[in-house]
Amino acid sequence: MKWRTAIGIVFLIAASTGGCLAADPRYPDWPCVQAKVPEISLAAVWAGPPLDDAANKWKNDAKVSALVSKLAARKTLLEEAQQAITEFLAGSAAEKAETGKLLFAGLFETLNAQRNSVLSGLERVTRKQREAADKIRSDTLALQALQGASPPDQPKIDELSNQLVWETRIFEDRRRVIGFVCEVPTAIDQRLFALARVIQQEME
């Protein structure tokens, strides 16, 4: 029977929400197996010269800003982004040094912002999942009460059973999306590190 199937799935879901959503007590809404790293450390990705005021100046350079947007976009293949950096950093050693710092400063700020957006989104969806799990549990108890009534109200049982199946489907879809999105912060870290390395090589 459909409602029995829904109840079985619901209790599996309810059990799964308890242990995986708060692996690190510092971040109770963090849903990923990967440890949460709130932001990328500059020292972890940049071994080049001090950026000085590049963090404040890169947006004022239209060419640098346009290239940062292209390089930071996930649709831009990493190999294509690396080639674009090589082509962009031309000129004298002094020019390469100045432009390279601006380019990295822009990438660091932009990719960190992307990453923060992903982290916030993951935690926001986790809170929704908790609310959904509570709703599923509540509806499950209501369905059990309806089924145990004498005589049972079959139209209400069918309506609530269908609602539970729909709620469960949404919950499971979100769970799968969370699993995929959990990989994104690491991918951003790796992209920034790879692009920073090309910039530094071109500046040397």
Distance between the termini: 70 Å
Round the Cα radius of gyration to an integer and report it.
25 Å
User: What structural class is derived from the secondary structure elements?
Assistant: mainly alpha
Taking pLDDT < 50 over at least 5 consecutive residues as the criterion, the unreliable ranges are none
What's the order of the H and E elements? HHHHHHHH
Rounded mean pLDDT is 88
Major sheet: none
Beta percentage is under 5%
Total separate domains = 1
Tell me the number of strands.
0
Using the alpha-carbon principal axes, give the shape: elongated
Number of DSSP helical runs: 8
Q: Give the helix proportion (percent range).
A: over 70%
